[in-house]
Amino acid sequence: MKQKRIFILNGHPAEASLNRTLAETYATTAQSAGHEVRLIHLCDVSFDPDFGYGGFENTKPLEADLTRIMDNIDWCDHFVITTPMWWGSLPAKLKGFFDRAFLPGTAFNSRKRNWLGMPEPMLTGKTGHVLMTSDTPGWAMSWFYKNAMIRQIKDQILGFVGIKPVKFTHFTGASEPKEGLVNNWIAEVSRLGTNAA
């Protein structure tokens, strides 16, 4: 199996969470399988999540922690995100990271556009995997919400900047998991980490 450079971003803003457990499980098993791994917990990162200006002409300078995350994304072959679904979308701090750090000249080139008028992505050559926790069942995600959060991350964020393909693993019933369920999830994430999937 080809060894990969893997960057894991735990997008849960709390210090202790199921998402942290999943991120650390992935990291440990990937390292044990010989992959090179870097892990950052968003709770340990300090930055202003408010883009603030509503345009790209006068953006705020990136804080050191945002630069460090972007350096890790540049470095990696495979980008893994763990995130809960809150109110049908990303936690505010994780969304704020994308708002602040995925900028023209870094994540996409707005001066070069394809035949659809979309900017040229600048983070190509990387794959992604999102480990998402929620209380919303998979069937409801699909039927009622049309997989809106999945499409947002896969197509409108990661795909937009060239990270593809992006796989999703959805763990549902996360607030009050049934007995044994978390152990099953940890086993699944261990398998994913070992295979760098």
Descriptive overview:
- With 197 residues, this protein is an alpha/beta fold.
- Helices cover 35% and strands 22% of the residues.
- The protein contains six helices and seven strands.
- The strands form two sheets. The protein has a five-stranded parallel β-sheet, sandwiched between helices.
- Helix 1 runs parallel beside helix 6.
- It is globular.
- The termini are close together.
- The model has no long low-confidence stretch (mean pLDDT 94).
Structural descriptors:
197 residues; 7 strands; alpha/beta; 5-stranded parallel beta sheet; 22% strand
N→C terminal distance: 11 Å
Overall strand count: 7
Radius of gyration: 17 Å
The fraction of residues assigned to DSSP E strands is: 15-25%
Structural class: alpha/beta
Strand order of the largest sheet: 2-1-3-6-7
The helix content is: 25-40%
Strand/helix succession: EHEHEHEEEHHEH
Largest sheet: 5 strands, parallel
| Overall geometry | globular
Number of helices: 6
Mean pLDDT: 94
- Uncertain ranges: none
Task: Describe the structure in brief.
With 197 residues, the chain is α/β, with parallel strands linked by helices.
